[in-house]
Amino acid sequence: MDPAVHPDDTATRAGTMRPETRGLMLGLVGVAVFSLTLPMTRLAVVDLDPVWIGLTRALLAALPAAAWLAWIGAPRPSRELLPRLAIVAGGVIVGFPTLTSVAMRHVDASHGAVVLGVLPLATALAGAWLAGERPSRSFWAFAVLGAGLVCAFALRAGGGRPQPADGLLVLAVIAAAIGYAEGARVSQTLGGPQTICWTLVYAAPFLAPVVAWLSWVHGVEARPSAWLGFAYVTLFSQLLGFFAWYKALAIGGIARVSQVQLLQTFMTLGFAAVVAGERPSLATWAFAVAVVAVVAAQRASAIAFVPRGASAVAAAPRPGVAPAPAQVCPASPTDTHR
C-alpha cells in the first residue's frame, strides 16, 4: 500500500463504509429505539409504580440477556471490569430508568424529550473525562449551541421556568451520560452487546429482592396499554437499543456519535404525537430544523485523543491503533478490536 494513502481513503474507494459513518448510522438506530422510551414510559406509569417500572424492566431484560450470552458462549468479564460494569449499571440500569419513570408521572413525554436534549453534551463531557477524548473548540461550540437550542425549547414549553420534575430529568441526564461513556469504554473490550448483557446479568441479583418488595407493596395490576409500554421499555429500551448504541460509540467515538442524540428530542416528539396524541407546534419543528443543522455542521469538527494527565499536544493511541504524531486530526477511529 502506498504509505501516502490513508487506510480509510482506500476503504472508502473500495466501497467500504468509513468507521465514523458506520458509527453514526448505528447511533441513529439506537436513538430511534430510545426515542420511544418516554412515550412508552408514559403509557406504563398510568397504572404501574414508576420505581417498579425502572427496576423491573432491567430485571426482566436480564433473562434474554443471560440466554444470549449462554447461546454465544461468552466468557465472563475479568474481575478488573466488574467495578466498571457497576458504573454502567448505576447509570443506565438503575439511575436513568428510575429517574425518568418517576418524572413521567409529572410531565409529558414532549417536555421530557426537550429537557433530555442536553444529554449529548453531557455524554461528550463524560467521554472526555473517562476516555481521554478531547474535542476541538469548534466541536464544543456546536455542542453548546445544540444543547442551548433544546434548553431554550424546554424553557419556552414550560412558560419560562423549569418544573420540579426537571430536576429528576437532569439527574437522569448525568446518570445516562456516565453510563453511556463508561459502557462505550468497556465495549471496546467486551463488545457492545456483551457489555449491556453482562451488566444486566450482574445487576439482577441486587434488583430481584427490591422488585419483589415493590410488587408486594404496589401490586402489578394494569391495563393492556400500560403493559405494552412496559414491554417495550424492557425489551427494546433496556436491551436491544444498547446493542446498536454501544457499538456505535465504540466505532465512531463517544464525542462525535453522542451528538446524534440531539435528534432524539425531535424523534421523541414525533412518537409522542403517535403514541400519546400530543401535537407539536410549528415552533417545535423549527427548533428541530435548527438542531439538525447543528448536528450536520459538527461532523466537520476535529477530535484529539489524549491520555489523562498529558498535555493537549500529545495525542494518545486508541486500542489497536499505532501511536499518532502530536496533532489534532479529524475523528475517524480505525481500530478494529471490538
Descriptive key words:
338 residues; mainly alpha; 3-stranded antiparallel β-sheet; 14 helices; 3 strands; globular; disordered N terminus; disordered C terminus
Task: Provide a descriptive summary of the structure in words.
With 338 residues, the chain is an all-alpha fold. It has one domain. It is 70% helix and 3% strand. It is built from 14 helices and 3 strands. A 3-stranded antiparallel beta sheet has the order 1-2-3. Helix 5 (82-103) runs antiparallel to helix 9 (164-190). The protein is globular, with a radius of gyration of 20 Å. The model is unreliable at 1-14 and 310-338 (pLDDT under 50).
Number of beta strands? 3
Radius of gyration, rounded? 20 Å
Task: List the strand order in the largest sheet.
Answer: 1-2-3
User: What is the approximate shape?
Assistant: globular
Q: What count of helical segments does DSSP give?
A: 14
Described by its quaternary structure, the protein is single chain
Distance between the amino and carboxyl termini: 25 Å
Which bin fits the share of residues in helices? over 70%
Largest sheet, in brief, is: 3 strands, antiparallel
- Tally the structural domains: 1
Work out the strand percent. under 5%
Global structural class:
mainly alpha
- H/E topology pattern: HHHHHHHEHHHHHHHEE
Task: Note poorly predicted spans.
Answer: 1-14, 310-338
Mean pLDDT: 79
